[in-house]
């Protein structure tokens, strides 16, 4: 009886917290972020945007704090930590736990200030939202969603780098992170030997959601044209939204700009709804794939979406695409975090490489332990 009564004041409480943390783990935690941190304190009050004090964390977050066993696996897996950035997922959780223990608070109350005094803003902005820490954590702690909630508070206060602020303004005003005219989004198709359908005017089997970098970046435009030629050669019926498409908003949301993300999602869903008939969506962008697949359904009906590697593997295996001259080279594959770790698509890209005659040699960090490229979570827009 004495032992049971003493559990909350001893390290034995972690045994209980671990069981609770694992039993309440959300398999979609990073794939699908919550729309708001917590409900408003009163029915007629505005909802809180993000988390700025320890009392705004949910009971599940507090359970995660107590569940941490300081094993350091998340610290070793984190690309931000490995690159010398001021973020350690382990230390972040331990600092929050220590602050919660010191503070007299109850869940839902505001409590003492959090960001700046306990957690440095630079540490929050260093996160790549790759999910490596979550994937490797043996006790089910969900670090990145907590970080995004705290980022939302920083965005609400306007406490962000000027380059990031400018990018978000460009996205809000022009619908893309390059600041280019929306009318030029489909300009890459002009160099093709055939016209690409405007799905707003004529139906197609697939709507190709192209994404910003595949539409505007010169190197990625070459890839887009190659994919278009492959689709054409296989007889795949596809069309584009052209200037009605805006950035899908996956990284806008992970930066913490929830309002802008919601407006982007609503715009794209409206554009899809106004298009002529299509059966499915295909995209070459893992980030667009993630948010359209997992987050857009919260805002309206959305057609099934596939990553182009799945489509190419199917076209090759069915014989609709034929390899005339196998490449015969040794290659390796970097698993994109949003395609692999978040959505479980490891085999389709490898199957495509095998079918075109490549010998695949995996890197030490691959599949669910893939090493993030460093651009996720909006880091591509920050210095």
From TrEMBL:
Residues 59-88, 117-147 form the 4Fe-4S ferredoxin-type domain. One of its GO terms (molecular function) is 4 iron, 4 sulfur cluster binding. The keyword Iron applies. One of its GO terms (cellular component) is plasma membrane. Transmembrane segments: none annotated. Keywords: 4Fe-4S, Iron, Iron-sulfur, Metal-binding, Oxidoreductase. PROSITE patterns: 4FE4S_FER_1 (PS00198), 4FE4S_FER_2 (PS51379). InterPro entries: 4Fe4S_Fe-S-bd, 4Fe4S_Fe_S_CS, Cys_rich_dom, HdrC_iron-sulfur_subunit, Helical_ferredxn. It comes from the Eukaryota. It holds the Pfam family CCG. This is Probable iron-sulfur-binding oxidoreductase FadF. The lineage of its organism: Eukaryota, Metazoa, Porifera, Demospongiae, Heteroscleromorpha.
């Amino acid at each position: 009886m004495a032992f049971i009564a003493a559990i909350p004041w001893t390290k034995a409480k972690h045994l209980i917290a671990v069981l609770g943390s694992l039993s309440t783990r959300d398999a979609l935690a990073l794939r699908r972020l919550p729309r708001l941190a917590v409900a408003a304190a009163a029915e007629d009050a505005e909802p809180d945007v993000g988390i700025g004090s320890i009392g705004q964390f949910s009971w599940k977050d507090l359970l995660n704090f107590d569940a941490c066993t300081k094993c350091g696996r998340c610290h070793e897996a984190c690309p931000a930590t490995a690159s010398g950035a001021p973020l350690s997922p382990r230390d972040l959780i331990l600092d929050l736990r220590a602050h919660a223990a010191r503070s007299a608070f109850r869940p839902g109350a505001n409590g003492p200030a959090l960001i700046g005094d306990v957690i440095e803003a630079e540490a929050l902005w260093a996160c790549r939202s790759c999910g490596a820490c979550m994937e490797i954590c043996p006790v089910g702690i969900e670090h990145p969603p907590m970080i995004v909630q705290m980022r939302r508070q920083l965005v609400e206060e306007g406490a962000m780098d000027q380059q990031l602020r400018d990018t978000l303004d460009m996205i809000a005003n022009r619908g893309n992170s390059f600041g280019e005219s929306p009318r030029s989004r489909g300009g890459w198709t002009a160099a093709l030997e055939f016209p690409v359908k405007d799905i707003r005017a004529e139906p197609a089997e697939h709507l190709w959601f192209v994404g910003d970098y595949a539409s505007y970046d010169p190197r990625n435009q070459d890839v887009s044209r190659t994919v278009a030629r492959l689709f054409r050669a296989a007889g795949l019926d596809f069309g584009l939204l052209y200037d009605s498409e805006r950035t899908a908003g996956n990284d806008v949301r992970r930066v913490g700009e929830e309002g802008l993300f919601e407006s982007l999602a609503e715009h794209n869903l409206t554009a899809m709804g106004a298009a002529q008939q299509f059966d499915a969506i295909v995209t070459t962008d893992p980030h667009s794939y993630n948010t359209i697949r997992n987050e857009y359904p919260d805002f309206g009906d959305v057609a099934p979406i596939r990553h182009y590697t799945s489509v190419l593997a199917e076209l090759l295996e069915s014989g609709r695409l034929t390899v005339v001259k196998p490449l015969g080279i040794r290659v390796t594959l970097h698993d994109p975090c949003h395609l692999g770790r978040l959505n479980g698509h490891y085999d389709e890209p490898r199957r495509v490489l095998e079918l075109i005659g490549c010998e695949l040699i995996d890197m030490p960090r691959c599949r669910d332990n893939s090493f993030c490229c460093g651009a996720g979570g909006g880091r591509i827009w920050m210095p």
